[in-house]
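Crash report, auto-generated. Payload:
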Amino acid sequence: MLNIIYAQSGGMTPVINNTAASLIRTAQKHSDRINKIYAAKNGIIGLIENRIIDITNLSEKDLSLIENTPGGIFGSCRYKLKEDDYEIYEKIYHTLKEKNIKCIFYNGGNDSADTSNKLSKIKEYFDYDLICIGIPKTIDNDLPFTDVCPGFPSSAKYIAISMLESSTDLKSMYLTSTNVVIMEIMGRHAGWLTAASSVWKKKEKDSPHICLLPEVKFDKDKFLELVKYFKNKYGYCTIAVSEGIKDSNGNFVANSKSVDSFGHKQLGGIGFQLSNLITNSLKYKCHCIVPDYLQRSCTHIATPIDIELAKAVGEKAVIYALDGKTNIMPMIKKINTNPYKYEIIDIELSKIANIEKKLPNNYINKNGYEITTECKNYLKPFVLDNNFSLYQDDDGKPIYFEFD
Amino acid sequence: MLNIIYAQSGGMTPVINNTAASLIRTAQKHSDRINKIYAAKNGIIGLIENRIIDITNLSEKDLSLIENTPGGIFGSCRYKLKEDDYEIYEKIYHTLKEKNIKCIFYNGGNDSADTSNKLSKIKEYFDYDLICIGIPKTIDNDLPFTDVCPGFPSSAKYIAISMLESSTDLKSMYLTSTNVVIMEIMGRHAGWLTAASSVWKKKEKDSPHICLLPEVKFDKDKFLELVKYFKNKYGYCTIAVSEGIKDSNGNFVANSKSVDSFGHKQLGGIGFQLSNLITNSLKYKCHCIVPDYLQRSCTHIATPIDIELAKAVGEKAVIYALDGKTNIMPMIKKINTNPYKYEIIDIELSKIANIEKKLPNNYINKNGYEITTECKNYLKPFVLDNNFSLYQDDDGKPIYFEFD
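Recovered output after restart:
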């Protein structure tokens, strides 16, 4: 009989708790082989500090409510295990040994794959048999060897609908008010979520007019020329910008020296920085949207495929463990695009750890500020939701009325 | 036979196009008395510049898609008519006369009530019979003589769900990451929308911990003490702040030099300003959410009562005109809170123009950073949505699972 533990790590997603619920449900179904189901509070920190809860007997109603909940139901952490920190590994070992836990499921992104992989040290240091299974999640969609990361589709939907709604509002206001709207989007090194802003874009006039990806070096002069072009042609300009765009020297553009009215240094804020650049250089009135945590906690808008994938990896992780597999992560292999079909495959944790998958070149238009049709076709199945509140087309795009 | 014209003005709402569609539908039903239905592009500017479209024969399918569309389907404007600008009134008169339009419906907020009221000058200057009906809309909810303004309920829902989702995310992250999340909310002088962040708050630990309303003078030291208190007690602190909070001298805390066409100061950036204040004074890591246009274009989350009210005022406006009434606005009189029942009454435009209804004292907790039960009871019916995607309680609050 196996005792298992589950933990969540890194930035949360709108559907990570679907993975948790699915994993618990699957483990409960195998009560002939799994005895106790535990969860660590705040990821690896709960294992280090022995903050563990017994979740063996959560009811189906509890599990449904867990699926209904954004954030990480057991708490998350940002904590990097060091290779040689023996004392830390010893603490984890004591926690595991006390409850006779022989299997860890670690639900996270790249850093978390690294953590799960390092947990195999426990076996090495203490001759303690331990199954380590990573489970993918990240709104950044930057894990290698998987077609998509659970969590990304819902955040992509949030960004797509937010871009559509805000730019439609702007279009009705630009004549006497704001001319430029900038949306600052998460994803420091990979532009997947920023690209999602453009999933439904068909014509040049569709928003966002300019999509600034971290994979493309930011050129200030070219950018201002583009803003001017769109403002002159359509009356307004809409911009999606990744928080992580870099200049020609590879430095983050958002490294502000500006000072606020308290005399304090202005933090972060690539969106507001571009807004100031435009206002000062072109005298256009700008608005800046910073969804921040909203784009990764938008459970109310979670898409069906995302919920399905989040559950699938949670279920498969338990199956792997029961099959005696270790140091792997269930990943998604696409079999068909439309309708989206996939199978779950296992990938070694050591291959995944700390690798970030960026947008490939063929997903970025040669002009540097749009995504390609290939990229849109990749993104479309993830933002589909037939139960969405608004009338929509076959791509899940709400259909708006337009007077020429 | 009457020719009528409809126009939209000021900042848009998630449901203003429901008002438009309902007005057109009602006018079409009275084709025995109404001949042509026109719309002015960009509000009063379309009347001045003679940019008018004939919408008499819009199909039911068109009207459904119009209801599906955020922003203002005919374009809006921020433009203040002057009392004595004869040439402008003359231009409007020529537009009206050319198409024999004898009835104007102007859909807007306080400024727009002023505009509709001033249009009666046309009658005075040119001896031209004209019915002027204002129709209410504003996410600010600051029109007097009405229980609620169409547009506000959906934006309130957006703010309430955004506060809940983002603070639940923060709760799972604060141990090793961000300690404070600030959400900057629209509402220049009235705190209705900021108050909506707290509609479901029951206990001190529920978010937002601190609700900063424009009706309450901002006290920097007291604020920092509060942030410290919540951070120490719960590990994190969540803050809803109105863009328009003022200091003890009555000046906006977020000071910016840009001004809109009404001479209103362009606000923005109070969120990041408070974020910097906290980071510098208390060394807590902060995140700042700026929903900006998203909170007024969130048609995907429009609430049933808001859609119903938006349609009701559009319909009633036509009925008033057919009854020969003029210089009035249909307003909402509450008859019952739960379930919400109302009737439509008419109020003279001259009474409404340029008056802003603020949060009454009994809606603000004496501590200055929370709203009262009366205020929550007022707000609750507006955020209800039985078709919402998540499990929810009787108040429309999604039910989340929580350990301990």
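Post-recovery validation: The longest strand of chain A covers residues 328-336.
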